[in-house]
C-alpha cells in the first residue's frame, strides 16, 4: 500500500461519471454551462459572492493568486516550508514576474502574526528593499496542521492593517475544513482571505483545482493571465464537471473526512512517534531507518522525511479497514 | 449542428476508455509508466529519437517550445495570422520573458523562405534591434492549408543557414499529415523542424497535447519550465493515457482523415465560394450576411470570419452523413 | 562634419558647469536637494502638478512609462517606426514583462485617431487577444514631424474614451516645442498625455532624461521599478544638475531652436529632395548613391536611410554658419 | 562630517578632468574609441583576456552578471546579507526573469564552501525545486571583510565541481584588493570567478561601473540585455572616460588604499568596540544610543546599524587628517 501522497490517488467514481455526462460537443473554453455555473456554485458554498476559476494544478492556482495580489517589484510573506517556496520550481516568481518570497518561521509550517511581523517589520520602507504586498498561508499546512478561523482572522487583521493581500493555499482545504468542522467561509473570507486555491485533485479529482476570489475585482485580470499561461482549456467543461461533482452533496467534504479518518487511525497507533499533531490527512512519524525498512518490508510505501522521520499521506479512497494493517504495524514497532 | 471549432468536440470513446484504465493509484507527476513510455512511443512514430512531454493546451506547447528556442531578448518570425500572434493573449511573450514576434505575410497564413527573408533581412545586426532566433510555422495553417515536406524543408534550410530554431505549431498536425499522406517525420524533423506542438485535443482528446523535441537536448530545461508554469499535473497518467490511446492503431490519423473528409465534402459543395483551398478540416466560404443567416436558420452554426466570409470547422466525430445536409444547403445557396 | 545623430553631440557648457557645482559629498540616490527640486521645477514648467524622475536614457524613460501604463498581459499601440518598436531591443517588452506592441501606420511616423482605431477596433474583447491598454506617440516623430496640440488632443480624447493611457516619447521634445511655439503643457497634459519621456541627452545633456508623470499617482510604483532596473544612481545629483541647468533660462528650448534652425537651413537648400517636411532637427533627403558619396567626399557624414535616402540630424551646437557649407553642397548637387 | 556611505562622495578630480577631454562630438553608444579600449585595458589589468562593459550602477552590473549565469528557472546562492538580496529591490529577479536567491549564512556576510553546501545539498535534484546555477559573493563583503584568494579559490573549486557560475560583487573591489595586496587576477579569474562587478562609483567615479567577464563568451548576449534594460548610454564615452581615468596609474587602487587607511585609523581608535575586523573602508562599532548621539553632536554623521551598532564608511577623499577628530572622539567615548 502506498502512502506517498494523496496527489497520486485514483479519481473518485462520481467525478469519473461526471466526465461522461459532459462528453458531447459544447461551447469551448469556459463558455459552457458547467463552467459558467461555477461562480454561483462557489458563492453558494461560501455564503458570499465569489469569482471561481478552474485551473489544472495547485501550482497554477497559487501562482495566479499571487500575481493578482502582488506586483513584480513586491514581496509575498510565506512560511519557509511553504509549497510555493520549496516545491513549485519558482512558479510564483514566474507568474508574478519576479516578486520575492519573504520567508518566516513557525512550528508545523504555520505562520502567526508575530512570525509575519518578524519578517516585515525590519523591512525599511524605501525603494531599496522589496516591500511586502501579500501573505500566503497553507491550510492545512504542509505538515498537516489546520489554521483555525481565529488564527486566520488574526493574520487577516494584520494583513488589513498593513494593506497586504491574503492568499490561502488550500491544496488540502477539504481536509482542513473537515477537521475544523466550521463553515468554509469562517476560515476564509470571514477571516480576511482574499483568494483561495481550493484543491480538488488531492481529494478525488483528476485535473481541476479552483481559484476562488473573495475580492471579486481580482478575477477579471486573472482571466487574461490564465489564458496567457496556457491554462485556458478548450474543453473546459471537463474541469468544471469534476469540481461540480465534488461539490454535489458535499462529496469534497466527505472525501476529506475519509482521508482524515485514516490519518487519525494512524495517529492513535503512533502515539509518541508523532512529530506534529495530526489534524488533516498527513502523518509525520519518528522512525529509525530500521523501523522504516521493516514497514516497507510489510508492503507499506512512503517517503522518508529527513533523517529519522517518515511522512505518510492518506488518500480519500484509503478506508480505515485498508489502513488498519499499517496502524497495527506502526503500533507494533 | 455546430461548426465553430474542432476544439469543442466530444472526446472520442477510445480516449475515454483509456482514462478508466489508468484510474488507480500510481506514481505522481510524470513518473507513471504511461508518461514514461511517451519518449519511446513518439520516437517510434517519428522514426527518430525524440523527447515527448505532455502539456494540457496548445498554447502551453507552443509557448514552451518558443521559450526553448528563443532567449528573452530575441525574436520569433511567424505569420501575421499565427495563433501565437493573435489568439494566445501574449503567451509566447510570457513564456519567453518578452521575446518579440516578428510577423510576416503570405497567402493562407503560410510563410515561405522569401516571406521570412523579407522580415529578417532588414534587421540590422546590432544591439538596438531584436535579432531573430527562431521561426514558427503552423501546419495545417490557421486557414487550413498544409505545408508540404518540400515547403517545410525549404524553410528548414533557411533556418539552418541563419542559425534559427524551427518550431511547428501542429494544433491540426493530424489533419495536415492525413492530407499530405506522408510520414510524420517527412514534414518535421527530416525537414528541419526542431520542436513540434502535436495537437490531440482538437482530434479526439480531452486535455492533452504533446510537445515533441527533435533536438532532444532542449527537453531538460523545458521540464523545469513546464513545472514552473504550473503545467506539471500530479495525475499525469490521465494525460499520457489520452495520447497513447490516440496513437494506438493510428487513431490520431484516422480521426484526422475523418474530419478532413467532412471538409472535403463541404468544399465540393462550395465550389467558387471557397476562400482558400481546403486541405485540412477548415472551410472558409464567401457568403453574404443573408446567406449566412439562411444557413443558421437551418440549424448550422459557425463563425463569421470578417465581412462576407464564414469559417466552418469539421470535427473528428462529424461523419459525412451528418455533414451532408450542410453540404446540400451550401450548394443550394 | 558629422550629422549621424544629435545623440552623439557634445555636452553643452552650462551642463558641464553644473556638474562641477554639485561635486561635493551629498545625500545619495535622489535624496539630494537638486533631485528633490525636480518635481517642483517641472510642475512650474508645465503649469500643473507633476512628478519628475531622472533616468539615464530615453529607452529607460519610455519603458518605465509603458510599465506604468500597461500590465504584462496588455498591449501598447504605437507606430510601426516607433523607436520603442524598432530601436530599443525589446526594452518595452522587458520592462512591461511581455506586453505587446500593437503597431499602426501613418505618414512620417505619425499616428492619428483613425490609424489607432484601425489597430484596436478589430481586437476582439476576449481573453484570447491582447487588449490595448495604452498608446505611445513620439513627438517630434522619428521622421522629424511635430504633433500639434490639436493632433495630440484628438489622440488624447480617443485614449480617454477607450480608457487607454497615453505616453509621449519626447526624445526630441525640445525640438517639437521649439517648432510648435506652444506652451509645453499644451502638447502634453492639456492634450491628455499621462506620461512624457522628456529628452535632454540629445539636447545638450550628458546622461540624464526625465520621466514626467502628469498622472502623478503613477510615480510611486515607478520609483520601485526604477531601482529594480538598476537605474537609481547613487550620485543622482549629477543627473539632476544636468537637467536643472537645461531648464534654467529655457536653455533646453534655446538648444532645440538652434538645432531646428540648422535643419531649416538644410531644408531650404534641399527643396524637392525632402522626403518629409522638416519641423524639428532631422532632415531626410532623396539622394542617389553617387550624390551621397559626393557629399561624403566633401567631409559630411550621415546615415543612409534605406535605398536612395539619407538622414541628417542637426545637433544643438551645430551653428548655421557651420552648417552652411553642407547646405550649399546639397543645393549644388 | 558624513560617514553614511562612500557612494555619496565627490567625484575625484582626475575623473572630472577626463570628462572634459571627451566632450566633443563622437560616435554614439559604445562605438567611441574610449569605450572600445575597455576590453584591452581590463585584459591588461587582469592579465587575461576579458570582456569589459560599462554600466551605470552596481545593481545593473550585478543583475546583468546573474542573468548571464542563471536561467529564469534557476537559483543563485548568496549570503543572506548580500546587497543583491536585501538592497536592490528585486533587481536580480527582474533581470533573471524570476530566478531565486538561495540564501546562506556566515560571519561578516562571508560565505564558505561549507555554508554554500548547506544551502545546495538539501535541494532535491528534481523539477519541483529550483536548482542552483550560480554563486554570488561580495568582495569586500557588506560588512567590510575581504575574501582572500584562497577563500575565493575554495568557493571557485566548489562552483566548478557543481557546475555553478561564480559572480563577484565588487562594489568595493578596490578596497578589497588594496587590503589584500594581491594581483586583481588572484582574487578573481585565477580563483574561478566568471564575472565581476567592478565598482568605480564608490571609489571616485561619477556614474560608471564595469561588468567584467572572465568567461568572455558571456559578453555577447549581455550586450543585448544591457541595451534592452535601457542601460546603453548614447554618450557612452563619458562612462568610459571615468573608468579609464581611474585605471590610469592605478588611481582606483590609490583611492581604495586612501579610504582603507581612514578606516584603519578609526579601527585602531575603536578597539573592542569593533563588531567586525576592519579590512576595507567600513567600520562597524558597538555604541550605545547616548554615545551615538554624542558623536553626532560633534558633527559626525553615520547610520545606526540595528540596535547598539553604528556603521561608518570612509570615502576616497576623506584624508586621515580629516578623520582624526572622529577617531579621537571614538577613543574618548
TrEMBL record, chains A, B, C, D:
<dbReference type="GO" id="GO:0006520">
    <property type="term" value="P:amino acid metabolic process"/>
</dbReference>
<keyword id="KW-0456">Lyase</keyword>
<comment type="subunit">
    <text>Homotetramer.</text>
</comment>
<dbReference type="InterPro" id="IPR015422">
    <property type="entry name" value="PyrdxlP-dep_Trfase_small"/>
</dbReference>
<dbReference type="Pfam" id="PF01212">
    <property type="entry name" value="Beta_elim_lyase"/>
</dbReference>
<dbReference type="InterPro" id="IPR001597">
    <property type="entry name" value="ArAA_b-elim_lyase/Thr_aldolase"/>
</dbReference>
<protein>
    <submittedName>
        <fullName>Threonine aldolase</fullName>
        <ecNumber>4.1.2.5</ecNumber>
    </submittedName>
</protein>
<feature type="domain" description="Aromatic amino acid beta-eliminating lyase/threonine aldolase">
    <location>
        <begin position="3"/>
        <end position="289"/>
    </location>
</feature>
<dbReference type="InterPro" id="IPR015421">
    <property type="entry name" value="PyrdxlP-dep_Trfase_major"/>
</dbReference>
<comment type="similarity">
    <text>Belongs to the threonine aldolase family.</text>
</comment>
<keyword id="KW-0663">Pyridoxal phosphate</keyword>
<dbReference type="InterPro" id="IPR015424">
    <property type="entry name" value="PyrdxlP-dep_Trfase"/>
</dbReference>
<dbReference type="GO" id="GO:0004793">
    <property type="term" value="F:threonine aldolase activity"/>
</dbReference>
